[in-house]
Amino acid sequence: MTVSLPHLRAARSQLRADIDGILATVKAENRKNLTPDEEQRFQATMSDIEVVDRQIDQAEEAERRGARAADVRARFTSGGPQATGLQVTSNENTYRKGDVHGFSWVKDMTAVALRQDADAAQRLQRNTREVALETRALSTTDGAGGEFVPPLWLVNEAVTLARAARVAADQVRKLPLPPGTDSVNLPRVVTGTTTAEQTSQNTGVSNTDATTNSIAANVATIAGQQVVSQQLIDQSPVNMDDVLLADLTADYAVKLDTFVLSNNAANKRGLLNVSGLNAITYTDASPTVGELYSKGADAIQQIHTGRFLPPDKVFMHPRRWAWFTAALDTAGRPLVVPVANMPQNVLAAMGDVVSEGFVGTWQGLPVYVDPNIPINLGAGTNEDRIIVLRSADVLLYEGVLRAEAFRETKADQLSVLLRVYNYAALHSERYPKAISVIAGTGLVTPTF
Q1: Which ranges of 313-419 does DSSP label H, i.e. alpha helix?
Q2: Residues 175 and 136 sit within 8 Å (Cβ to Cβ)
Q3: N or C: more exposed end of the chain, with fewer CB within 10 A?
């Protein structure tokens, strides 16, 4: 994509006009009266302006260099001044995965920590603006200074490519985490208004005041660290970004998914620990897939009758789905068969054969297998769980990954401490009746 300098300047003018428009909505010259949505738009637009300003600076510098080069050619070649033209192409990201000849985010982080390298700091700041622009739906203002956003490829891998390690977390409703808060509070109607048949004309109609309260989701911090030698950072033939940060990010994805599934703290309840959810017990010393089928129907109808809206997803451990696919009827035919076979009168339909993620349907709902569902529950510590869910009723607020490099505490051994962290908040208790959990001895370790 080719972008001319006049076009860039026009884009900057339009973005500044957008800023004026946002402020004009509240008839203010500052941001104090902006709503959260307007503030988010303001921040995203300001990030766009920063990126465009940087591109304009680069284009103007390129134009100056081109003019100087043309002047030199004009003075030292017989052909006279050479025609020059300026084209500004879309810039590649500052840091790219697997690019051993490019810049290393880890090296730049340590360069800033060790010797306050100005060029490295400039690249880190440019990368932060790139991430802010590409992930404008998310907030990059969490934290309290000193940290830089990891490369865009790493953020994408944590949020998108690492989906297999955070199945449930990626299937609930995701929202950007508001900046500057330790708790996300949402209003809730506790008891509603009423209507009734009017007994006769000119008599009072039903009159009941609604009562409300609020429900809080506390912000949790998920973090990890790695100590690495300065020699490895300086001398490694590959960028350590691909090794260290990718590993930390992969584990972050697992921990976030576990937070969504199993966390059990006030205002941070995972799906399995929501108070008042629909609890369905399947007790059976010799469990079968056929007998479990009716429990699935019960889990679905309880959401219908308690939430008055349908569920849309089922989550189970991979071993439970494997148990489904191994089940046979009395004639030795499988009860779960591939969709491609156009099955008739089957208990479930098999989609893709994967270890994590979407695998098929059960009771008409898509099934997602998630290895982070615990398998050590129940009296025998050998049970797993099946979750039936209306996913839109569960809100996961997530920030953008942050990272830091520290040399001070490890300077005596010539090491650098790398730290990756993020903030998240989970609203799982807004509608407890939107969640059904099947549990019991019928879900012990399956046999094949």
Answers
A1: 318-326
A2: no
A3: N
Name every residue whose Cβ is closer than 8 Å to that of residue 186 and which is 6 or more positions away in sequence: 214, 215, 217, 395, 427, 430
Mention every residue, 6+ apart, whose C-beta is less than 8 A from residue 27: none
339's tokens: 């969709």
In a domain, 224, yes or no: no
CA separation for the pair 437, 282 (Å, rounded): 10
- 111-147 tens-digit pLDDT: 877 777 888 888 888 887 777 666 554 444 444 334 5
Q: What is the widest separation between alpha-carbon atoms in the chain?
A: 106
Distance CA 272, CA 312 (A): 17
Give pLDDT < 50 ranges for the chain.
1-2, 72, 75-90, 137-146
Q: How far apart are the C-alpha atoms of 57 and 385, rounded to whole Å?
A: 57
Q: 35, 62, 91 — which closes off a domain?
A: 91
SS3 300: helix
346-384 per-position pLDDT tens digit: 677 666 666 678 888 999 999 999 999 999 999 999 999
Q: Please give, one letter per residue, the 3-state secondary structure of 186-224.
A: EEEEEECCCCCCCCCCCCCCCCCCCEEEEEEEECEEEEE
Residue of 339, 364, 341, 359 lying closest to 349 (CA atoms): 339
Q: Cβ(95)–Cβ(102) under 8 Å?
A: yes
**Alpha carbon separation from 265 to 19, 214, 314 (Å, rounded):** 41, 18, 24
Q: Kindly report the backbone phi and psi dihedral angles of residue 188, in degrees, each rounded to the nearest multiple of 5, phi listed first.
A: -145, 135
Residue at a domain's end among 45, 72, 91: 91
The Cα 148–Cα 142 span in angstroms is 11
Domain assignment of residue 349, yes or no: yes
Q: Hey, which residues does 345 pair with through a beta bridge?
A: none
CATH of the domain at 378: 3.30.2320.10
CA–CA separation, 287 and 378 (whole Å): 15
Neighbours of 353 (CB within 10 A): 9
- Asked if residue 75 is part of any domain, the answer here is yes
Contact yes or no for 433/276 (Cβ under 8 A): yes
342: left (phi over 0), alpha (psi -120 to 50) or beta: left
Structurally, how many domains does the chain consist of? 2
pTM flag (> 0.85)? no
Inside any domain, residue 181: no
**Long-range pairs of 407-415 with CB within 8 A, sequence gap ≥ 24:** 407/110, 407/113, 407/114, 410/227, 414/229, 414/230, 414/231, 415/227, 415/228, 415/229, 415/230
